[in-house]
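New to this. Please check both lines:
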Amino acid sequence: MKHILAKKNQILLKELVRTDFKLRYQNSVLGYLWTLLRPLFIFAILYVVFVKILKTGGAVPHFGVYLLLGIIIWNYFVEVSTGSVAVIVAKGDILRKVNFPRYIIVLAGSFSALINLAFNSAVIAIFIIISNTQISASVVLLPLLIIELFVFSLALGFLLSALYVKFRDIGFIWEVCIQGAFFAVPIMYAFSFVTNKSELLGKILISNPIAQIIQDARYMLISTKTETVYSVFGSAWAWLIPISIVVLISLYSVFYFKKQSPYFAENI
């Protein structure tokens, strides 16, 4: 019986992912090409403003690729977390009619975003090859970074979607948080800009899992001169800080979502 239910849940998840991905580009002339064009357009704008006009990132090797990689990782995080906020409420009619695990709805959005990340990764791979970046031997650990990114983004998705069912203000609050976090995470600037101003501020910012993931990915794929948790704190044990944040948020998010999920249908 459990095997049959698990199989049904897998089929449902697959169909929700497929539907979500198709609806996203429905009635669009360029369709799935927007998966690649959107981050490239954002990259082009930021590159012109911050590299050509403001002249930032001059000391960073391959700053264009450095910038693009940060944008791609950040876009995935935003897509999963922001896209999850109202997803339970949006599926209210289905929740009232069909009995299935509620977490599948949030999980479907995460896998749909993961498909986008895969396409964008192919683009960044091309830029890396063309730019002949300094790829570190630690690149073998890149899948662990992707897992960390997936888990952290999904955990916030669970928490935000469950909170939004009861508190609609969460949507506005998270929108403000995302706007602020965009400038707090080293996407448009070299992280050395922060550490040169304040070592303490650098330690605080690099403890953010998203900042840690972006910097580690840049270290692995672009330049070993990129500052990471290790170089900022001077200890490999410092990686336990962002990892612990991911674990704690994940545990609480799963607990809260599981606790609230039986009441989703009646609270929507």
Notes: Residues 12-267 form one domain. The chain is about 75% helix and 0% strand. Residues 38 and 75 are 10 Å apart (CA to CA). Residues 103-131 form the longest helix (29 residues).
